[in-house]
Amino acid sequence: MNELVVTRAIIIDESGDKVLLGKRGRGVGENKWALVGGKLDLGETAEQAIVREVREELGVGFEPKFYKTATDTGSVPGQEWLVHYFTGPIHGELRPDANEIIDVAYVSRQDLGLLDIAFNHRERLIEYFDLRLQG
Q1: Any bridge partners for residue 101, and if so which?
Q2: What phi and psi, each to the nearest 5 degrees, are found at residue 28?
Q3: Cβ atoms 118, 29 nearer than 8 A
Q4: Which residues pair with 106 in a beta bridge?
Q5: Pairwise CA distance, residues 1 & 118, whole Å
């Protein structure tokens, strides 16, 4: 099986209590909320890819800090993805690419149960918020 690799950004607000999600405009998970990110281009590192993806999809700069790498086997039937997660703040005015992201919102841990969230991002974000509360 070819290794499928993707990056995801856990973009935090100024308070550190909310994370930015984008509502997907196309593809797998269309019309569902998800972390912003995407596949690596040839020769790119995961960190370079997430900076590029955030700029392309949201029109802002991103200061990534590596958070974790995890395998996702349940989001797309028959596919196993290696997911590199980065966290950090953004800078600049949000200008979502309407072809990719049809809405954006900062959400708290409590909001996660109210949204239709793509992939396994709800579980990853619950884990993220819970670790922050402990730390």
Answers
A1: 24
A2: -60, 130
A3: yes
A4: 20
A5: 23
End-to-end alpha carbon distance in the chain = 37
Under a CB-based contact definition with an 8 Å cutoff, are residues 34 and 24 in contact? yes
Question: What is the per-residue pLDDT across 94-106, written as a single tens digit (0 to 9) for each?
Answer: 999 999 999 999 9
pTM (2 decimals)? 0.94
Per-residue pLDDT band for 64 (boundaries 50, 70, 90) equals very high
Q: Are 75 and 82 in contact (CB under 8 A)?
A: no
Phi-psi domain of 108 (left: phi exceeds 0; alpha: psi -120 through 50; beta: other): beta
Please say if the pLDDT value at position 82 is more than 80. yes
